[in-house]
Automatic annotation (TrEMBL):
It comes from the Eukaryota. InterPro entries: TNP-like_GBD, TNP-like_RNaseH_C, TNP-like_RNaseH_N. This is Transposase. Keywords: Coiled coil. Residues 317-430 form the Transposable element P transposase-like GTP-binding insertion domain. The keyword Translocase does not apply. Residues 140-286 form the Transposable element P transposase-like RNase H domain. Residues 520-545 form the Transposable element P transposase-like RNase H C-terminal domain.
Length: 589
């Protein structure tokens, strides 16, 4: 290099060194300010005791938990790191510890304070957690930041790795809330009025003007739309809306606006909608009827005209309604007189089996059949496991062996819908092998005989039943004949679930998926999500809109570490205790 080139090079290096020096001083000032704001001071004797305890137990703990990827090892290392910090204000907690602490604090602020202040373990301060839990605004409706966070969760779950993993479903349902108005000091608004987005709000204002009331109604329910992946563990609450009993005309624009945001913004592909059999949801499906279709179980995806979006009636809800239809047949409300093939399908057959061969007999023919299964009370009606255990092959086999021939149709009813639930509730790759139940194996072949059982045998069973009732001789009224069948809502839901889920299974296998788990098409994650709202309120089972907004914001930050309640009306998926999530958690600036 010439002398001029060397001088120019030296000048450039001096400028670069100056810039780096300024950056170092800037970072140092930020570090010192962070310590002042978020630091926690510890007494000297407490620090020495904790450090000596860590040093003496460290090697023994590592031998006890040799897997460096275990959560116990991570927790110990974080405690050890905190104890060895000369300045505790410089502690930087692992993202998974932050999520776990956010979830604990969401359960109970008082309990979290008691744990962190007890001295047994050290946890991030509430001030530190505040910045993580308040990364998103506490608001309902469509939020840009919430969708960006959903995209990060999709990437973390590998939904963009292979094309067929992009398929997701939308679960939507309403949770009952307490009518209340709360002043939000951050935004200066009153929280608690109905809010369904711009389009639906204009429709509500028009309805109010027509009624000439002029009063804005308070919300009685919150509609939550959740994104659930078919593959992976992503169950993310996308948006929520404060409603006053949602109707199909309000539901229609909200759902399709969500579909458009998911497909264009998140680059995911919506395959199905899942909801319960409430009348607004069924009317929403009927709005997509083309021509003289008898059963509307799919519609064309407007973003992908070559593909369909399928309508699924939640299978666990169907199992409960099936049990309720049977329990009201000659018993309880006596609103049904189920009859098929010349014989009654009666709940009294189940009662007789329990009283004669289970409760008073030395040999219990059905150990899982208890009084809470047979003599239903208000809360027992909500339990899916109680309904599934009554509609089981063990009860059917015991009834077939111990009761008379008059129970033949009840036995066939129990066996048919036991297999129906097993085929549509496949939860894991190994469950069928471990339980020795081939009906619970994952679907790997589009010609699987279980799909033929659902689409042919079950549908034929229901159609033959209806034909026999219509052809039954006698002076029966239209209402009496209808009571001899399952309710029309249940019949429609069963056929909807069978056709939609069978079509989804075949489609995914054709797209290249290795296997399909049918449990992924139900709305259990949404029911567990509602449990977080109710548990937050203590003895008050119905939260307010303000409380729902705050819990929703925290659950979005915690995501997969939000463990559902064990005593809910759905079965919780196994908790993944092996995976360590190192992804950074977003923080408020």
């Amino acid at each position: 290099m010439t002398r001029d080139e060397l001088c120019l090079k030296l000048k450039e290096q001096k400028g670069e060194i100056s810039d780096l020096t300024n950056t170092v001083w800037k970072l140092k000032r930020q570090y010192e300010n962070s310590i002042k704001k978020e630091g926690v001071s510890v007494k000297e004797h407490e620090s020495l005791e904790l450090s000596s305890l860590m040093d003496s137990c460290s090697e023994q703990f590592k031998r006890g938990f040799p897997d460096s990827n275990s959560r116990q090892r991570l927790f110990w290392e974080q405690q050890e790191l905190y104890a060895n910090k000369p300045d505790k204000r410089g502690m930087r907690w692992h993202p998974m510890i932050i999520r776990w602490c956010l979830f604990l604090r969401q359960k109970s602020q008082a309990a979290y304070d008691a744990i962190s202040e007890s001295g047994f373990i050290k946890l991030p301060s509430s001030r530190t957690l505040y910045d993580y839990s308040h990364f998103l605004n506490s608001d309902l409706g469509f939020q840009k930041d919430a969708f960006e966070l959903a995209k990060k969760e999709a990437e973390k779950n590998g939904l963009f790795d292979v094309e067929w993993r992009r398929y997701v479903g939308l679960l939507f349902d309403e949770v009952k809330i307490h009518e209340d108005l709360v002043y939000d000091k951050h935004t200066g608004e009153l929280v608690g009025y109905c809010n369904l987005g711009d389009i639906a709000n204009q429709m509500m204002k028009f309805d109010t003007a027509q009624k000439e009331t002029g009063a804005q109604s308070l919300a009685k329910q919150v509609l939550v739309v959740m994104l659930r992946s078919v593959y992976g563990n992503m169950c993310y609450p996308l948006c929520a809306f404060a409603t006053n009993t949602i109707t199909s005309d309000f539901l229609y624009p909200l759902i399709w606006q969500t579909v458009d945001a998911v497909q264009t913004g998140l680059k995911l592909r919506v395959l199905f909608f899942t909801c319960d059999g409430a009348s607004p949801n069924r009317r929403f499906f009927h709005l997509h009827r083309v021509g003289n279709e008898e059963l509307v179980f799919r519609t064309v995806n407007p973003n992908e005209p070559d593909h369909y979006i399928y309508f699924i009636s939640d299978v666990p809800h169907l199992v409960k309604t099936l049990r309720n239809n049977l329990s009201n047949s000659y018993s309880h409300n006596k609103s049904r007189t189920l009859w098929r093939n010349g014989k009654d399908i009666s709940w009294m057959h189940v009662v007789r089996l329990f009283e004669e061969h289970c409760e008073t007999s030395l040999y219990n023919a059905c150990p899982r059949l208890t009084r809470k299964h047979v003599y239903l009370q208000s809360f027992n009606y909500m339990k899916v496991n109680l309904a599934a255990q009554v509609l089981s092959s063990s009860v059917a086999n015991a009834m077939q062996d111990l009761c008379g021939p008059e129970t033949e149709e009840t036995v066939l009813f129990l066996k048919t819908f036991d297999k129906f639930f097993d085929c549509l509730n496949v939860r894991s790759v190994w469950e069928g092998r471990n339980s020795r139940n081939p009906n619970m194996n994952p679907y790997r072949d589009r010609d699987d005989p279980r799909l033929e059982f659902l689409t042919v045998e079950v549908i034929t069973y229901l159609n033959d039943w209806e034909q026999q009732v219509n052809n039954r001789r006698g002076p029966f009224t239209k209402t009496q004949r209808a009571n001899m069948l399952l309710s029309y809502q249940t019949l429609e839901g069963i056929k909807l679930a069978i056709h939609a889920i069978s079509s989804c299974v075949k489609f995914l296998l054709e797209e290249g998926a290795d296997y399909v788990l049918t449990n992924r098409f139900n709305q259990d994650p949404l029911e567990q999500h509602f449990g977080h709202y109710r548990l937050k309120c203590g003895s008050n089972r119905n939260p307010s809109v303000y409380e729902v907004r705050n819990v929703l914001r925290t659950i979005r930050a915690v995501n997969s570490q939000a463990i559902g309640t064990k005593r809910g009306n759905t079965q919780r998926d196994p908790v993944d205790v092996q995976t360590i999530d190192n992804a950074k958690i977003s923080r408020r600036k």
